[in-house]
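[job 0412] stage=fold_complex status=start
inputs:
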Amino acid sequence: MKKYLVLIFALLSGSEIIMAEGFDDITLKTSKVSGNVYMLEGVGGFAGGNIAVSAGKDGILIVDDQFAAMAEKIKNAVADINTGELRFVLNTHWHGDHTGANAIFGNNAIVIAHNNVRKRLQAPQENDFGQSPAQPKEAWPLITFDESLTLHMNGEAIDFVHFANGHTDGDGVVFFTESNVIHVGDHFFVDAFPYVDIRTGGNVLGYTNNVKNLIERMPEDVNIIPGHGALATLADYKRFYDMLVSTTDYVKTKKNAGMSLAQIQGDGLPKKWDSWGHGFIKADKWIAFIYQSLDS
Ligand SMILES: [Zn+2]
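[job 0412] stage=fold_complex status=done
writing structure:
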C-alpha cells in the first residue's frame, strides 16, 4: 500500500522536483495482457497510473503516461515491446499521475482526451491535495472529444468513451475491442477505496453508476487494466462495485437519519471494509466523498 501514500505527491504535480528524486528506484514491469495489448506498471514505488500499450504494424499507442520523471523509463519499456513509432497518447483524465509526461511525448505523438481534460490542463486546478499549476502547451491534448471517438489501429477498433462525472468530469475509458482489454482509468482502484475528485467534477454516485454501466458492457473473460492496482478480472470489478454500493447505502442511511459527517466518521464503516482503506484514502476520507456526493 506504500504506493498509494506517494500518490499524495503525485496529485500535487507542482512538486515535480520532490517526485523526481523518488523515482530513481522505480522500475516498470511489462506484462503482455492479450492480443496487441501490454500493461506497464510501476514496481518499487509509486510510478503513477498503469499504462496500456497497443503495439503492432501501425505503431504504438499508449493510454496514460505517469510522470515526466518516468518518461525515459516508459520509452525504454515500450521500445522493448516494439520499435515502432509512438503515435498516440490517450489520457483517461487530467490528474498529474496520468498526464505528467504529456509535455514530453506531446512533442512527437498526438495526445487525445476528453474536452474537459484539455480545459483542466490549461488552467491551475485545486483539489484535496492542493494546487496543480497549468501545464505547458505541449501537454494539452491536440484532439479532444465530447462523447467518444474510435481509432483504427493494429488490427482493431480502439474505442475511447467518455463516462461523465465519475472520478472527475473528464474521464475516458479505452476499449481494445479485438484484444478484449479495457483500461478503465481511475474508475478502478483494486480492492481499495477510490479517490473521487469532487472539486473537479467527480461524484461517488456518478462513479458507481459508471462502474455499473462498464460491468454491463464487459464480457466474462475481459482483461481489466485498472488506474491503480494489478491487472484484474470481471470478478474483481464486481467486488469493487459491491463495495461502492454497500458503503454508499451505509452512509446514506445514517445521513438520512440526521447524522453529521463527523458523527458518521466517528462510527466508521463496518469492519469488513477495513482492508480497503489505504495511505491517503482511509475510511474517514471515503465516507466524506460519499457524504459530499449525496449533497451535490
Ligand atoms: Zn486520478
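[job 0412] summary: The two ends are 31 Å apart (CA to CA).
[job 0412] exit 0
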